[in-house]
Amino acid sequence: MTKELNLLEVQIENKNKKEEVDEEVNFEPIDEKIRLHVKKVIEALLFSCSDPLALNKIREVLDTFCSLTPRQIRQTIEELQQDFIGQKRAYKLEEIAQGYALRTHEEYAPYIQILRHQRRYDKLSPAATEVLAIIAYRQPVTRPQIDAIRGVDSSGTLMQLLERQLVEQQGKLEAPGRPSLYGTTKEFLKHFGFKDLHCLKNGFNHSE
Q1: CA-to-CA dists, residue 146 to 32, 48, 70, 93, 151, angstroms
Q2: Average pLDDT for consecutive 10-residue bins of the chain (208 residues)?
Q3: Contact of 165 with 120, CB cutoff 8 Å
Q4: For domain 110-202, which CATH number applies: 3.40.50.2300, 1.20.1250.20, 1.25.40.20, 1.10.10.10?
Q5: Is the pTM of this model over 0.70?
């Protein structure tokens, strides 16, 4: 049995090496027009995601209009990183948690904290109240599950609730793509004057 496992490991290693060599041999420069479009699409995807975006997810989207190898995609992402540095943007593109994400430079953190503090006291919109109610009653819940209940995209509203610290990430769902799970916070209890989550049994009718 051990011999068979060792043989399987060798076969897998050889296959990975072959794929790397094939990618190296078959690598071709991307057409300039396509390359610029790909960069814009990747930037748009990163702006729309609060969680790090995995390379395979980026590739799935790009495959809808062009076929690129992982190396070509990584090269384009590196170019995008250099663009942000050269343009002295307030944010940067980083590879974190086996994915890519846009993050603001540390020097702007104090200003962002001021904004978050102000937003914390803004009245919740109907959409935010709806998303918050779904999370409160269904937690832990993923964004796709929230979208399915509401019938519309909730990414922007969810980001607002995260910024106001009314909800937080509570791990990952063991499913394809490992989407983030969200639940309410202590700030949520303080905001609505709840002692604990058991108070939700009496209804989500407490007004601000």
Answers
A1: 39, 16, 31, 28, 8
A2: 49 50 52 91 91 92 93 94 95 90 92 75 84 93 94 91 91 86 90 76 50
A3: yes
A4: 1.10.10.10
A5: no
